[in-house]
Amino acid sequence: RVRPLVDMFVAFVIAIGGLLLVGVDRDCAAGDARELPNIVVIYGDDIGYGDFGCYGGTGVDTANIDALADGGMRFTSAYCTAATCTPSRYSLLTGQYAFRNQAAKILPGNAPLIIDTDRPNLVGFLRSAGYRTGLVGKWHLGLGHADQPLDWNGKIAPGPAEVGFDESFNMAATADRVPSVYIRDGRVVDLDPSDPIGVNYQSKIGNEPTGRSHPELLKVQADDQHSCTIVNGVSRIGYMTGGKAARFKDEDMADTYLNEAIGFVRRNKDQPFFLYYAPNENHVPRVIHPRFAGSSGLGPRGDALMVFDWCVGRFVETLRSEGLEQNTLIILSSDNGPVLFDGYWDGAINRSGDHQAAGPWRGGKYSRWEGGTRMPLITYWPGTITPGVSDALISQVDLFRSIAAMIKTPFPDDAEMDGQDVSAALLGHTDQGREFVIQEALTQLAVRQGDWKYLPPGSITERAGIDQWKSITVDEPGWLFNLADDPGEKDNVAADHPDKVAQLRRIIADVAPE
Ligand code: NG6
Ligand code: CA
């Protein structure tokens, strides 16, 4: 008669022990929503490999980011998928190379959504896995349907919500493109219905001054493409009318996004959350809040980096004060390489001093050279990630699959398969990342494998200083560089290594069949 009671007691002890184990061991937590780590992606804009102090940047004090690198993993061979914004962001969220989607090119502010909402993506995946998902900052992946005009004065959909974000506070595209307003959960913030918004990228609408007609009204002079409607003393790409009360002030944008990011964390701290925090810095126009203006000595571009660093510091401090730091993985990176002049005469070229925004690498935004896509990448998770520096080869297209592996939730069978599981490298357990990385600039591809970098034949267009572009032709059989001997990609050694050229060319042909 005593036996069942003993059995029950033993079972009870085992059950309690099991529960305790689950409580302390994150590895046992699969499927238990309460044990999932929070995940925050902090995604800078146009920030280059060499911009932060921890990557050798001089002239800008990035103490907060340097502290993340000191306490986490800092990667030296991490790549965004493309040298411009839209394709990189597309790949990060979908796990698909952007060149597979014709629409994944730099989008105007009134472009339709380019993410297929019927396919799995990182955000929807995390939501299904039990996460509360939030977007704060730059979107630039399109809004609305392709076959019907978008009404900016009603519900703006499909967009972030249909991609999987429970909460969103974002601008439509870039700060230099209209409409210059914030959108919260699919509706323009502070919109006065009696002053409806109109947007046009083909021809002028309304009778407001433009950069072309009224350059004397501008805070910063702009090139022709950036000389349409003036909002907040800055002429933009594209025309807009109405929405006066809703228009943003560039000077306040960083604080606005930071406060939204902090608000998201505080609201959702009692459940696992995923936050995609995408500040505007270092994209143009670089219109700096007075308390940071002049803080770097490098002009507005350096000042914008100071702003970014300060925001990162405040954000991490919030995680710390909320007691979330030990249970939050932060992934900090950028969407494409640096650019000094990008439409506005803000002094970035003249005032860059010794600061090498792309670090030791050639080129920057828009280019297939290393500077276009080799990005700063820091992963930070105190207590879980042991601090270090890693040269593991990583592409941002890997994040979806790697995050799925980290939270031990099966990667959907029907998800895009361009990404690989490099979670062990991201957590600092190994220096082994992917075998090769594909780089894209303006739809043209390149490949890096080990020390080798190969650019297939074709022409390259790149920004060549103020208001200029230059075209370079890569001739047959393409250009090969040995990055160990020649990090600046100056010395084409294709003729000496025909086998290497053929092998790398084959990688591109396999990944992207003509
Ligand atoms: C380019 C703009 C540039 C910037 C870029 C998008 C011109 C000449 N250049 O077309 O200023 O807005 O698009 O940047 O208009 S990105 O980081 O969002 O890709
Ligand atoms: Ca960008």
Automatic annotation (TrEMBL):
InterPro entries: Alkaline_phosphatase_core_sf, GAG_Ulvan_Degrading_Sulfatases, Sulfatase_CS, Sulfatase_N. The keyword Lyase does not apply. Residues 37-405 form the Sulfatase N-terminal domain. Its EC number is 3.1.6.1. Keywords: Hydrolase. Gene3D superfamilies: 3.30.1120.10, Alkaline Phosphatase, subunit A (3.40.720.10). It is an enzyme of class 3 (hydrolase). The keyword Chaperone does not apply. GO terms for molecular function: arylsulfatase activity. PANTHER family: ARYLSULPHATASE A (PTHR43751:SF7), SULFATASE (PTHR43751). Belongs to the sulfatase family. This is Arylsulfatase. It comes from Crateriforma conspicua. The gene is atsA_97.
